[in-house]
Every structure is written in structure tokens, then in C-alpha cells.
Amino acid sequence: MHPMVKPALRRAWRDRQTVQFGMTGAHAVTVGPVDTATGSFLGLLDGTRGLPLLREEARAMGLPDGLVDELVSRLTAAGLIDDATAGGAGVDALRMRADMFDRLRPDLASLSVAHPEPGGGTRRLAARRAMRVQVRGAGRVGATIASVLAAGGVGRVEVLDSGSAELWDVAPGGLPAASVGDRRDTAARQLVRRAAPGRPPRAAEAAGASGGGEPGLSLVIVAPRDGAAAYAPDPVEAEPWLSSGTPHLYAGVAEATGVVGPLVLPGGTACAGCMALERAEHDPGWPRMLAQWRSGRRGAVPACDIGLATAVAGLAAAHALSFLDGELPATTGVRWEAALPLLDWRQSSMPPHRECSCGAGGHTSGECASGVGEPQDTMAG
């Protein structure tokens, strides 16, 4: 182990014997009492020395035997120590590609703060490279989500959409103006390739990481150009993901209203069918209106403000990355929603429905209902 005080956390002395690591309330930690000699020794915890050398340095500074191990143990328990040599084959391969590793250093710094165990950040960053995510939609929201995921180190980001790119699909971080007229799926693949910090993993590398064959989908993100399909998701479309156990996250902008979530864990949290049944109970007229909206002629250009679309894409991508890193983000079984002009984000709980066949509510037979659900707001964001 080569201990390193996490460089992402700013360091300051609160008083002569107390050091604070970190500025923000979410991750700040105070350590004390710390005398002057020990404070000087903290500067040696930079990842360039192993424990044997650190013990020698401490003795040369006149520090008592055992202090190094005790100090490193205390700082590790407080989530302040990283290991500059931690990882495995995946991490080593990432470190060998200096250009890619340097592009991802801000992401690594963030992961080291969010995950306290030594080496947790590098292991998660390496794990992203072996993952496969599918984004369904290449409009202002979907294409931007895809580019952010690729830039965040996700090894395989697939984008599915039809038709040709239009001028109103263009967005910062999304499809460029040069792609107008090109097939949306082709333009999105090029976007992902440009956004990624390096080339995607080779087929053999991906197969090895998945135990042979093409890796399964780690996550599907439903971000259609017509955001109504994210606001009112179709249970029929979700059936393959439910049957295969594939997690999926909804995101989009419909009529100047942005939605992120819910993240659906098949059999564990509410699915599109659950939402449909829940909404129909609260609003009996909703299924009839929804059928008309789905069968009617759609407007040529959606109401998708660029600022709101970018905010939705960023939030959805951040929640997706958190999930891929092994967490259950705040969209798990929950929808976040904000509407222009005030943009006050609100969250609504999406409970599993007892009559839905997805099993999350305890019912395991029958067909999922059609329509969409939208329970009442439970808490202001």
C-alpha cells in the first residue's frame, strides 16, 4: 500500500491542533489533536512511499514507533486515505494509457471523495470501461446523455434512434450542426467516439470482462426525442427489459417540463405498468386521453428548451453513472421533475402497484396495464 491523503479534499487548520480535510459539508472531516511534527508528516502521505519507507521517515523526524500505522489507520477509517497502487488488471491497463487516464483524472478525484475506501475510485473507474449502456433516443437529451457517459469512461455506449438529424436536434454536448441530414444513429455513434477519452475496449477485452461473449446491458436509458414517451412511458416497450432483468432509467423533456426517473430495477421497484395502474386509479380519464395523444399527429418540433434539456441530460447521466458505480441514486423508484419558468425540482415517489405483473408489488401473474402513472408529489426538491 502507498497511502495518499486524498488530494481532492482541500486541507486547512481549524486551530493549532485540528486539521479539516474538505470544504463541503457532505465530505468534510476534522482530525485532531495533531501536533506540529505529525502535521508535517502528513505532507509525506502523497502516494510515493510505501509503509516501510514512511516508518523510516517518521523515525528520522523523531516521531514515536507505531505512529505511522496508527495515523494511517485513523485516516483510512475516516475515508481520507487513498492507495496509489490499488486496483487490479483493469486499473493497471487504465494507468498504462496515460492520455485516457489524464482525461479521467477529474472523474477519479470525484470518485475518490464519494467512495471512502482506498482504491475505490480507481476500481470503479476501471469497471466503467467494461460496461455496456444503451441510450434510446438521439435528440437534445439522449445524445447529450450518451456523450457524457462516454466521456465519463463507460466503455460501450450504444445509441438507438431512427430518421435523420434535424436542425432542432443540435445541442451543446449533443449532435453537432455538421450532423444535420445524417442518420441519427450514425451521428450519435460519431459523437460518442469523439466524447470518449480513448478507443472503446476491443471485442476480446470486453468478452473477457463479461466471461465470454458480448457483455450484457448494464443499463438502458430511455430518452426519446418526444419527451412524452419518458413522461408517460409505454409498458409494452419495457417488457423486454423486465423479462431480462435489465435496469432502465427514464429521462426527457415534454412540453417544457423536464423529468429524470424513475430508475426501474425489475422486480424491485415500480415499472411503467405500475405507474400506469397508479395513475389510472387517481385519474380515470388519463388512459383515454393518453390513447388519443399516442395515436394523434405529433407536432413537428417539440417544446424542449436547450437549458432544460441540458440540465435533464446532465442529471440523468450523473444518476446513471452513480448506479453503474454500484449505488442506488435518488431516482430509484422516484421521478424528479422541473417545469419552466421556475424550474423548482420536485420528486415524486413511484410505488410498485400490487396488481402489476412485474412482481415489484407482490403480484406475479397477468399482464401489465397500458398507460402511465404519475403519483402526487411527496416532497419539494
The third-level CATH topology of the largest domain is Rossmann fold
Residues in helix, %: 25-40%
The DSSP helix count reads 15
* Rg over C-alpha atoms, rounded to the nearest angstrom: 24 Å
CATH architecture of the largest domain: 3-Layer(aba) Sandwich
Q: Which sequence of SSEs, written as H and E, runs from N to C? A: EEEEHHHEHHHHEHEHHEHHEEHHHEEE
**Mean pLDDT, as a whole number?**
90
What key phrases describe this protein's structure?
13 strands, Outer Surface Protein A, domain 3, 381 residues, alpha+beta, single chain, 3 domains
Helix-strand layout with pairing:
Blueprint: E1 3-5, E2 11-15, E3 18-21, E4 29-31, H1 36-42, H2 51-60, H3 67-77, E5 81-83, H4 89-96, H5 98-103, H6 105-114, H7 120-129, E6 132-136, H8 142-151, E7 156-160, H9 184-195, H10 203-209, E8 219-222, H11 228-231, H12 235-244, E9 248-254, E10 257-264, H13 272-282, H14 286-295, H15 306-324, E11 334-339, E12 346-349, E13 379-380
Parallel strand pairs: 6-7, 6-8, 8-9
Antiparallel strand pairs: 1-5, 2-3, 3-4, 9-10, 10-11, 11-12, 12-13
Helix pairs in contact: 4-7, 6-7, 8-9, 8-15
